[in-house]
Design a protein that fits this description.
The structure holds two protein chains of two kinds. Helix content of chain A is about 35%, strand content about 20%. Chain A has 13 helices and twelve strands. Chain A has helices at about 45-55, 80-85, 100, 110-120, 125-140, 145, 155-170, 185-205, 215-220, 240-245, 250-255, 325-335, 350-360, and strands at about 5-15, 20-30, 35-40, 60-70, 75, 90-95, 175-180, 205-210, 225-230, 230-240, 305-310, 310-315. In chain A, the strands form two sheets. In chain A, strands 6-7-8-3-9-10-12-11 form an eight-stranded mixed beta sheet, with helices on both faces. Chain A is globular. Chain B has helices at about 55-65, 85-95, 115-125, 130-145, 160-170, 190-205, 220-225, 240-245, 250-260, 265-270, 330-335, and strands spanning about 5-20, 25-40, 45-50, 70-75, 80, 95-100, 180, 210-215, 225-230, 235-240, 315, 320. In chain B, a hairpin with a 5-residue loop joins strand 11 (about 315) and strand 12 (about 320). The chains are: A alpha/beta, B alpha/beta. At the A-B interface, helix 7, helix 8, helix 9, helix 10 and helix 11 of A face helix 5, helix 6, helix 7, helix 8 and helix 9 of B.
Chain lengths: ~375, ~350
């Protein structure tokens, strides 16, 4: 049985502007000792989905449906009290911005000790403090006994992120959710943090869900990758397959957009035209179709579902193109050829139809 | 390419730290830039890389004269600009422009795009004729891939990538000789980054621009730049062409940076041995003596690195590096993903 199993999760927010479909029917599972990477651009729903696992989106305007099974128990049906016992104990989360996640008035060591005491009410203060010092040492804070008495502002960015990780791991969680854990950090510190997450995963056999926009980060630490676009998972596969045999035009676009350290320097970047859609007013049919160079008329009407691809049952893709067509396009792209199916789309202004529509709009009056 | 457009010599910027309210007394200084010398050749793209606090943005602001240096010389197109003021400075600004990191805070939300892009003309009293300004602005919008019809729209009506295009159009308005781009893509989504990078490359080729490109993303810098300066704690520690730098970094700090960059290829990532630097960057108020990197350096030799300051000198392969014990080829091979493609 999977440690965490998310089934057809939908998170919709009612706002004044309309219904925001932040997460629109995603399913995934994570096993013990495994790392799942969730990749996507801003607004793809990657953070909302994991915040929902932690029960952090339980607001009045949120409509949540589906199932989130943790060790077989549905977290969406759990009471706030039950959730509080699981959160920080069995499931822990680290956030992107360590400064706003630590309380500025309390010493770092006290904050970690508090997390320990909440879930171990029988322990003494001294035991909790010892545990906090032990954890700070484990994540590589020098002189942990002294530094436990420091305030968050006395720590550098990397040390704060390590303190956050120490807090998250202080109760030996079975599942660690890391939301952009290294985005605010310099590369040398990022390497330290990634190393730490990998080590904890192997030493404590924890499962890890890592959410990021950085394909390099997931290439280094994820076993499987789910690519999200506009609230859906559009491709899900083993890490190697996502990078070497991707089966979705959005994934091709992401891989073509990043300069690679191992490619010739004059390599041409191929950006994805247009920009991510509004989650209030999603395009009809395949929601990627306005940005897809391989779009056909039928794709604007039919909503693709996540289906296994030919030849690899662990690899799923939500694309209406025929699998053989996709494989041919990818081999063309890899060889640097322009696939015959490709059609030209306007950059950043949307498809030719959208540009034409804009041109007809009267320009807005100034003031 | 050829002769130097900008020549920087021994550039220093110290920010004083003061104590007391009435009797302000200097008690120390943040040594943001501490003796930096380099040339920028006409038509090239010079990259400046380093971690936060290394002084790369301060260097950019000094070149643009958004602040004055503590000491040192900056020659721009044969003229000394380190101390110029007033009308001379205003005239200088016509020839160098800056593109900023955050396209959300660098555009005035209450002005239309047309007003924002034509502002440089107003300041310099150019193209006063009726309708002339609008025509030129619309041409500029077309050049950077914006719809000229959107002349009267406000910044909030544009996406992040489009806003960065507005910033590029504004920088191009006066046809400057030099453009300094400070982290121009780091606030953008991956799929949009490539659009802006391609735009900058096309414009540079078409207009013969000289570009200083500041970034922390080493793969972007490799893609964009002809030559690269690596900064650490206010000093240049290595300077080389992109090919040389990425094929065989000689300074241990450059090597560590390159080893730390995650490669977007799981097969390469599995082969690479990630080299972890211990600790954090020391405070620039009190930098370590001699080689500033010695406190974190994997090749530190006591009695040498913490006593003798290593001057920049040519090392094997043509890189210029400030190090007593530069990296050898076998040391580079396992840790640096780009070492493979070198010839």
């Amino acid at each position: 049985m999977a440690l965490l199993e998310v089934k057809d999760l939908k998170v919709h927010f009612q706002t004044d502007d309309g219904l925001v479909k932040a997460v629109d029917g995603i399913s995934y599972s994570v096993d013990v000792g495994q790392a799942l990477g969730i990749v996507g651009e801003s607004g793809s729903g990657k953070s909302v989905s994991s915040q929902t696992v932690m029960g952090l989106t339980r607001a009045g305007n949120a409509h949540i449906s589906g199932e989130i099974l943790f060790e077989g128990k549905d977290l969406l049906k759990a009471s706030d009290d039950e959730l509080r016992r699981i959160r920080g104990n069995d499931i822990a989360m680290i956030f992107q911005d360590p400064l706003s996640s630590l309380h500025p008035f309390y010493k770092v060591g006290e904050q970690i000790a508090e997390a320990v005491r909440i879930h171990n009410p029988d322990g003494t203060r001294a035991q909790a403090r010892d545990r906090a010092v032990e954890m700070l040492g484990l994540v590589g804070i020098p002189e942990p006994r002294n530094r436990a008495d420091a305030y968050p502002h006395e720590f550098s960015g990397g040390m704060r992120q390590r303190a956050m990780i120490a807090m998250a791991l202080s109760n030996n969680p079975k599942l660690l959710i890391a939301d952009e854990p290294t985005t605010a950090l310099d590369v040398t510190v990022q390497a330290q943090i990634l190393d730490l997450i990998e080590r904890l995963q192997s030493e404590f056999d924890a499962a890890v869900v890592i959410i990021t926009h950085d394909l390099g980060v997931v290439a280094e630490i994820a076993d499987e990758i789910a690519v999200m676009y506009a609230g859906r998972i559009v491709e899900h596969a083993k890490t190697d397959a996502v990078f070497h045999a991707p089966e979705h035009p959005y994934t091709w676009g992401l891989l073509g957009s990043i300069p690679r350290m191992d490619a010739p320097r004059d390599e041409e970047l191929v950006p994805i035209p247009g920009r991510p859609p509004s989650l209030i007013n999603l395009p009809s049919g395949c929601s990627f179709h306005p940005r897809c160079p391989y779009v056909r008329d039928a794709h604007k009407k039919v909503d693709p579902s996540l289906e296994p691809v030919a030849g690899d049952p662990t690899h799923r893709s939500a694309c209406l193109l025929d699998s053989s067509v996709r494989k041919r396009i990818w081999s063309d792209l890899q060889a640097g050829r322009r696939p015959e199916e490709a059609r030209a789309l306007e950059l950043d202004g949307g498809t030719p139809e959208m540009v034409a529509k804009h041109a007809q709009e009267p320009p807005k009056a100034a003031g | 390419m050829g002769d130097a457009l900008v020549e920087v010599r021994d550039l220093v910027k110290h920010f004083p730290i003061t104590k007391g309210v009435v009797l302000r007394k200097q008690v120390g200084a943040v040594q943001a830039v501490d003796g930096v010398s380099f040339d920028v050749l006409r038509g090239e793209t010079l990259g400046v890389v380093g971690e936060s606090g290394c002084g790369k943005s301060t260097t950019a602001r000094l070149l643009c004269r958004l602040m004055g240096p503590t000491s040192g010389s900056i020659q721009f197109d044969g003229r000394e600009i380190a101390g110029i003021k007033g009308a001379d400075l205003k005239a200088l600004r016509r020839e160098m422009q800056m593109i900023f990191q955050d396209p959300y805070s660098s555009l005035n939300p209450r002005k239309t795009v047309g007003t924002i892009i034509s502002e440089p003309f107003v300041i310099h009293g150019m193209h006063d004729g009726k309708g002339e300004r609008k025509k030129i602005v619309q041409e500029l919008m077309d050049t950077v891939g914006l719809n000229p019809e959107h002349f009267n729209r406000y910044p909030h009506e544009f996406s992040g990538g489009q806003r960065q295009r507005i910033g590029v159009a504004r920088a191009l308005a006066l046809k400057p000789k030099l453009i300094i781009a400070d982290e121009p893509v780091s606030a953008l989504d991956v799929s949009i980054q490539a659009q802006i990078l391609n735009l900058l490359r096309e414009l540079q080729a078409a207009m013969g621009l000289t570009l200083i490109f500041i970034a922390h993303d080493l793969s972007v810098v490799r893609h964009m730049c002809d030559r690269v300066a690596v900064m650490y704690l206010g000093k240049i520690v290595e300077f080389a062409t992109s090919e040389e730098l990425y094929a065989h970094p000689r300074h241990p700090y450059t090597g560590a940076l390159m080893s730390a960059v995650p490669v977007a290829d799981p097969r390469l990532a599995a082969q690479k041995k990630r080299q972890i630097l211990v600790g954090d960057v020391p405070s620039p108020t009190n930098p370590p003596p001699a080689c500033r990197f010695h406190t974190r350096c994997p090749k530190f030799v006591a009695g040498k690195c913490d006593v003798d300051y290593p001057e920049l000198a040519v090392k094997e392969g043509g890189n210029i590096a400030a190090c007593h014990f530069p990296l050898t080829d076998p040391e580079i091979a396992g840790a640096v993903p780009t070492a493979k493609v070198s010839r």
